[in-house]
Amino acid sequence: MEKFGLQHARSALVNVDDWSALQFSLINAYRRNPSLISLLVEVCLLRQVAHSDVRVDIITEFIESRIPVLARANRTGEIIWLLFLAIRLELTLSSERLAVLFVIENAFVALLVVCLASRGFVKGVVDRGLWDRSLNVEGLRSPMWLYAYEAVTQGFIPEVDDGFIVGDAYFKFLRTRRVQFLDLRKGYASISTTLRRLREENMRLMRLREAIQDEDTEEFDDFFDFDEIEDEHDTPDEMNIY
């Protein structure tokens, strides 16, 4: 209910007069309810676009203190959101605080960390030892393929040659077509555009729910019974889709 209510108050949150107090409230709300992480990031970025008054010192301290906690709990989805926030707000993070991530074999986490470093937003040395083991043909067929392809082709680690990529028939095709799976320039550039897109998405989901509810058939009843059983035993971190 909390997430639903806040999602439908984005415009009011972004344009509130006392932003400083709200920023602390949003951070505390996320601490109580981790499912609010995407909303926290979204509102902070939209506020910065609209008013340029996000307390980046507070956000930096929050991210640096939060990442070790999340890493110990293997909550990589939330880590990814916070790294994305750091990149978009151009925050400088300490490599000492990020060190817990250097031993996590997660392609998206690795990719965002080297992106931060390539832009000069990491103070200290990034240990890529574990991640760079995937910078070969075998790595392109492993769970680290996104790091192996994107970190090199986007120039986040310019000292690494792309020979292993162009030597692979499939990835050579993607490289030649300049296919990229990560574009941090898109999204949250305009509050009006973003809110319009989100409202359209909310309406689409609402129509979809209504259509499903109208289907009074045994097939749908059986499907949702099965889905409920699955949910009871499997509650993955929603951000692991990355």
Record keyword descriptors for this entry.
single chain, 242 residues, mainly alpha, 13 helices, 2% strand, globular, disordered C terminus
Describe it for me?
There is one protein chain. The chain has 242 residues and is mostly helical. 61% of the residues lie in helices and 2% in strands. The chain has 13 helices and two strands; from the N terminus they run H-H-H-H-H-H-E-H-H-E-H-H-H-H-H. It has a two-stranded parallel ribbon. Helix 4 runs parallel beside helix 6 and helix 8 runs parallel beside helix 9. The chain is globular and about 55 Å long. The protein starts with a helix and ends in a 9-residue tail after the last helix. 26% of the residues are buried.
Distance between the termini: 25 Å
Please give the number of β-strands: 2
Largest beta-sheet details: 2 strands, parallel
Average pLDDT rating: 84
Q: What global shape is seen?
A: globular
Which blocks of ≥5 consecutive residues have pLDDT under 50?
Answer: 226-242
Order of strands, widest sheet? 1-2
How large is the count of helical segments? 13
Give the class from helix and strand content and strand pairing: mainly alpha
CA radius of gyration is 20 Å
Order of helices and strands: HHHHHHEHHEHHHHH
Range of helix content: 55-70%
* Strand fraction: under 5%
